[in-house]
Amino acid sequence: MKYPSYLRRHVIGTLVDNALNVRPPTSKYVRTSTPCTCFSKQLAYISCLSSRTQLQETPRPKPVRDFANGRSSGSSSNLSTSIENEVTTKANLVLHSSAVPDASVVEDALRACEQLASFLARISPSNGETPRLEISPASNLLSLEESQNESKTQRQKDIPWTISAQNAATQLISTTAYKVVTDPKVFITPKVLSAYVHVQSLLNRPRSLPEIFKLYASKPVPKSSSKSITYSHPSPRKPSAHIPLPVANDALSAAIKIKDLPLCFDIIESSVCAPAYRLSRFLRKAFIPVSGAALAPFAIYQLASQLSAYQVTMDSRMATNLFFGGILAYVGFTSTLG
């Protein structure tokens, strides 16, 4: 097969240039003709497709509001409105109810407040991580400043909130939780009390906890009837009205965190110093020993009467009394050693 002369010149020139590592101008070896023009157009089209594939931009994800992970792509006003709607929607189911709300509805309302309080606690400037101390004092100061700047920059990237917006949201959540717990139709269960203490502890607003502790013991119990809601007044001294010790510890830790000494004393007085807690502790700690000590003489007398039947040296009644006195003295002496 015989090739055209211009194609032979182009091939030979390309081989010579590759051997000499020289790139000559295209116009010296390539003649502007129809076959060469089509070939260059195909190369240009293929390179255009490859560059378009490489430079293709990935689509951006849509902004998602995620309170649990502490991320949001909305503005400060939009996020504040979302938090307000989230809290008030759950709280209105309790506050605007014409009957006694179920415990699950009250717990859902406080759980929503608890989730949003956790979100606010993560983005709060006072909840930064404590940096690890180095050996040199100068390095400690530098690492402290760098960690504070990095945490501040990260919080600004995560949430575009101002301090006033955070305070407004904190006030809203704290007030809503307080309204839910103090509503006359709400019966405060141990789960409700624990959730309320956790919410106020996350928000660093535990000053209402002594009041709620007293209300937990003395709040009238609502009961639904056919026509209206009736209330019964419980005794604040009964053992079931005591504040659980883990809840009291959480409340005291929150008061210590904000460095309020009078509040610490009020929490201690309304929780572990209350008559209901003392009675509950007595029943839990001393009920078994006291019951055993009360029943021990009757059991010992029965044992002594059975042992007196196995002897013939003295009267049965005298033997029973001797066995009873000896066993009772032994049990009473050994029980005081522990």
Would you write up a description of this structure?
With 338 residues, the protein is mostly helical. Helix content is 67%, strand content 2%. The protein contains 13 helices and 2 strands; from the N terminus they run αααααααααββαααα. It has a two-stranded antiparallel ribbon. Strand 1 (221-224) and strand 2 form a beta hairpin. It is elongated and about 140 Å long. The model is unreliable at 26-74, 127-138 and 155-159 (pLDDT under 50).
Which helices and strands occur, and which strands form pairs?
Blueprint (H helix, E strand, L loop, with lengths): L4 H16 L5 H4 L4 H21 L21 H20 L7 H21 L13 H22 L4 H20 L7 H13 L6 H10 L2 E4 L4 E4 L12 H13 L3 H10 L4 H33 L8 H22 L1
Antiparallel strand pairs: 1-2
Helix pairs in contact: 4-5, 4-7, 5-7, 5-8, 7-8, 8-10, 9-11, 10-11, 12-13
Which descriptor suits the 3D outline? elongated
User: Compute the gyration radius: what is it?
Assistant: 41 Å
Proportion of residues in extended strands: under 5%
Q: What share of residues is helical?
A: 55-70%
Structural class determined from secondary elements: mainly alpha
The total of beta strands comes to: 2
Distance between the termini: 116 Å
Physical arrangement of strands within the biggest beta sheet: 1-2
Low-pLDDT residue spans: 26-74, 127-138, 155-159
Q: What are the secondary-structure elements, in order, as H or E?
A: HHHHHHHHHEEHHHH
Question: Residue-averaged pLDDT, rounded?
Answer: 74
Number of helices: 13
Biggest β-sheet description: 2 strands, antiparallel
